[in-house]
Amino acid sequence: MRDSEHHAPCSGRESFIRRAMDLHGDAVYLVALSQTRSQIDAQDVSQDVFLRLLTSKTEFADEEHLHAWLLRVTINRCHELYRSPWHKRIAPSDEMIAAIPSTDLDPAEAAVSALEQNPVWAALKALPEKLRVVALLHYVEEYPTETIAAIVGCPPATVRTRLHRARLQMKRYLESMGMEGNNE
Predict the structure, then answer these.
(1) Looking at domain 118-178, which CATH architecture does it have?
(2) What is d(CA 155, CA 147) in angstroms, rounded to the nearest whole number?
(3) pLDDT at res. 162
(4) Which CATH topology does 10-106 take?
(5) pLDDT tens figures, 62-117
(6) What's the CA angle centered on 37, arms 30 and 29, to 5 degrees?
(7) Where are the domains positioned within the chain?
(8) Nearest Cα to Cα of residue 63 among 4, 121, 122, 22
(9) What is the DSSP annotation of the chain?
(10) What is the C-alpha to C-alpha distance for residues 138 and 123, in angstroms, rounded to an integer?
(11) Residue 153: how many CB atoms within 10 A of its CB?
(12) What tens digit of pLDDT does each residue of 128-145 get?
């Protein structure tokens, strides 16, 4: 058999995964990046999330359900990553990553690099995990507190409390960096 005979046209499942990656890949990566604080780990987590989608038997009611499922799996995968003994032994430091010689950045890497320079992103990354994830889901993904509560598995009142604490901590962080906030 020739190689061309092995490649069937794109199946329904394959096209579903590709569409999900196109529509939700950036959000999955951004949540993974905010949780892991490492581009390498965020890429691994994102890949794992879409592999899990490929093997999932979940029936999605709509795009919103799929999006929420992907973000929940992303958060869970980040937790799994940090609980693993392997990660605790080999987690690269920012200094190690910075020492790797870089070539020309592709557009996605350039966007991440620009994001890393943003003081608000630095303030978000400085938050504890539970505050960071709700702030990202609310301010970046624009989810209401009830949806965030379902994604992270806590009551809406807890989400609102975490958002309030996240705002206060980010404000303090930005003020300490010389960026005075005029609102709030």
Answers:
(1) Orthogonal Bundle (1.10)
(2) 10
(3) 96
(4) Rna Polymerase Sigma Factor; Chain: A (1.10.1740)
(5) 999 999 999 999 988 988 887 765 544 444 445 444 544 455 555 556 666 666 67
(6) 20
(7) 10-106, 118-178
(8) 22
(9) --HHHH-PPPPHHHHHHHHHHHHHHHHHHHHHHHHH--HHHHHHHHHHHHHHHHH--PPPSSHHHHHHHHHHHHHHHHHHHHH-HHHHHHPPPHHHHHHS---PPPHHHHHHHHHHH-HHHHHHHHS-HHHHHHHIIIIIS---HHHHHHHHTS-HHHHHHHHHHHHHHHHHHHHHTT------
(10) 15
(11) 10
(12) 989 998 998 888 888 899
pLDDT in tens, 23-64: 999 999 988 888 888 888 889 999 999 999 988 999 999 999
Lookup: tokens for 153:
């598995």
Instruction: Calculate the alpha carbon distances from 171 to 51, 120, 137, 177, 181 in Å.
Output: 37, 9, 18, 10, 7
Residue type, 26: D
CB distance 70 to 27 below 8 Å? yes
Residue 121 CB-density burial (10 A; 0-12 exposed, 13-18 middle, 19+ buried) = middle
